[in-house]
Amino acid sequence: ESGLIQSGFEIPEKAPPKQGFLNTLVSKFEAEPIRFLPAAVWVAYMYILFISDGILPGVNALALEQRTWEEVRDLSLNFFLVAPSLNLPFSPLVHPM
Protein backbone atom coordinates (compact mmCIF):
# COMPACT_ATOMS: atom_id res chain seq x y z
CA GLU A 1 0.00 0.00 0.00
CA SER A 2 1.40 3.35 -1.11
CA GLY A 3 -0.69 5.45 1.28
CA LEU A 4 -2.59 7.21 -1.56
CA ILE A 5 -6.32 7.69 -1.52
CA GLN A 6 -7.91 4.92 -3.57
CA SER A 7 -11.52 6.18 -3.70
CA GLY A 8 -13.72 8.89 -2.27
CA PHE A 9 -16.67 11.15 -2.89
CA GLU A 10 -17.08 14.89 -3.08
CA ILE A 11 -19.66 16.74 -1.01
CA PRO A 12 -20.88 19.76 -2.99
CA GLU A 13 -20.74 22.96 -1.01
CA LYS A 14 -23.48 25.53 -1.09
CA ALA A 15 -22.56 28.51 -3.27
CA PRO A 16 -22.22 31.84 -1.51
CA PRO A 17 -25.07 34.26 -2.11
CA LYS A 18 -24.52 36.53 -5.08
CA GLN A 19 -24.38 40.26 -4.56
CA GLY A 20 -26.70 40.92 -7.46
CA PHE A 21 -26.86 43.24 -10.39
CA LEU A 22 -28.30 46.13 -8.38
CA ASN A 23 -25.41 46.09 -5.90
CA THR A 24 -22.96 46.14 -8.81
CA LEU A 25 -24.65 49.20 -10.27
CA VAL A 26 -24.74 50.97 -6.93
CA SER A 27 -21.05 50.34 -6.35
CA LYS A 28 -20.18 51.68 -9.82
CA PHE A 29 -22.22 54.83 -9.21
CA GLU A 30 -20.56 55.31 -5.81
CA ALA A 31 -17.10 54.84 -7.30
CA GLU A 32 -17.73 57.25 -10.19
CA PRO A 33 -20.55 59.73 -9.45
CA ILE A 34 -20.22 61.20 -12.96
CA ARG A 35 -22.07 58.08 -14.18
CA PHE A 36 -25.30 59.63 -12.87
CA LEU A 37 -25.34 62.16 -15.71
CA PRO A 38 -25.61 59.72 -18.65
CA ALA A 39 -27.99 57.53 -16.64
CA ALA A 40 -30.28 60.49 -15.93
CA VAL A 41 -30.16 61.59 -19.58
CA TRP A 42 -31.06 58.04 -20.69
CA VAL A 43 -34.00 57.84 -18.25
CA ALA A 44 -35.27 61.25 -19.39
CA TYR A 45 -34.92 60.25 -23.06
CA MET A 46 -36.85 57.00 -22.52
CA TYR A 47 -39.58 58.85 -20.64
CA ILE A 48 -39.94 61.49 -23.35
CA LEU A 49 -39.81 58.95 -26.16
CA PHE A 50 -42.19 56.32 -24.82
CA ILE A 51 -44.36 57.67 -21.99
CA SER A 52 -44.82 61.44 -22.17
CA ASP A 53 -47.80 63.09 -23.85
CA GLY A 54 -47.52 66.41 -25.63
CA ILE A 55 -43.76 66.70 -25.95
CA LEU A 56 -43.51 64.66 -29.17
CA PRO A 57 -46.27 64.38 -31.77
CA GLY A 58 -48.44 61.28 -31.67
CA VAL A 59 -49.57 59.03 -28.88
CA ASN A 60 -47.26 57.52 -26.31
CA ALA A 61 -46.22 53.86 -26.43
CA LEU A 62 -48.75 52.90 -23.75
CA ALA A 63 -51.63 54.07 -25.96
CA LEU A 64 -50.70 52.07 -29.06
CA GLU A 65 -53.11 49.47 -30.41
CA GLN A 66 -52.69 45.76 -29.78
CA ARG A 67 -52.10 45.14 -33.49
CA THR A 68 -49.12 47.50 -33.42
CA TRP A 69 -47.47 45.53 -30.60
CA GLU A 70 -48.16 42.25 -32.44
CA GLU A 71 -46.47 43.63 -35.55
CA VAL A 72 -43.48 44.82 -33.50
CA ARG A 73 -43.17 41.34 -32.01
CA ASP A 74 -43.51 39.63 -35.40
CA LEU A 75 -40.98 41.92 -37.07
CA SER A 76 -38.59 41.36 -34.19
CA LEU A 77 -38.83 37.60 -34.67
CA ASN A 78 -38.22 38.04 -38.40
CA PHE A 79 -35.28 40.42 -37.93
CA PHE A 80 -32.73 39.69 -40.69
CA LEU A 81 -34.98 36.73 -41.63
CA VAL A 82 -33.33 34.56 -38.99
CA ALA A 83 -36.49 32.78 -37.86
CA PRO A 84 -37.82 32.07 -41.40
CA SER A 85 -34.44 30.90 -42.68
CA LEU A 86 -34.17 28.40 -39.81
CA ASN A 87 -37.75 27.21 -40.51
CA LEU A 88 -38.73 27.86 -36.92
CA PRO A 89 -42.36 26.93 -36.24
CA PHE A 90 -43.12 30.28 -34.59
CA SER A 91 -41.82 32.54 -37.39
CA PRO A 92 -44.77 34.73 -38.44
CA LEU A 93 -45.43 35.87 -41.98
CA VAL A 94 -45.12 39.66 -41.91
CA HIS A 95 -44.25 41.99 -44.75
CA PRO A 96 -41.73 44.57 -43.51
CA MET A 97 -43.18 47.47 -45.50
Q: In whole angstroms, how far apart are the ends?
A: 79 Å
* Total number of helices: 4
Radius of gyration (Å): 26 Å
Please give the share of residues in helix: 40-55%
Instruction: Determine the mean pLDDT.
Output: 83
Main sheet attributes: strand count, strand direction, barrel closure = none
Encode the helix/strand succession as letters: HHHH
Bulk shape: flat
Could you explain the architecture of this structure?
The protein is mainly α. It has helices at residues 21-31, 36-51, 66-77, 82-85. The chain has 4 helices and no strands. The relative contact order is 0.06. Helix content is 44%, strand content 0%. The radius of gyration is 26 Å and the shape is flat.
Task: List descriptors.
single chain; 97 residues; 4 helices; 44% helix; flat
What's a quick, concise take on this entry?
The protein contains four helices and no strands. The chain has 97 residues and is mostly helical. The relative contact order is 0.06.
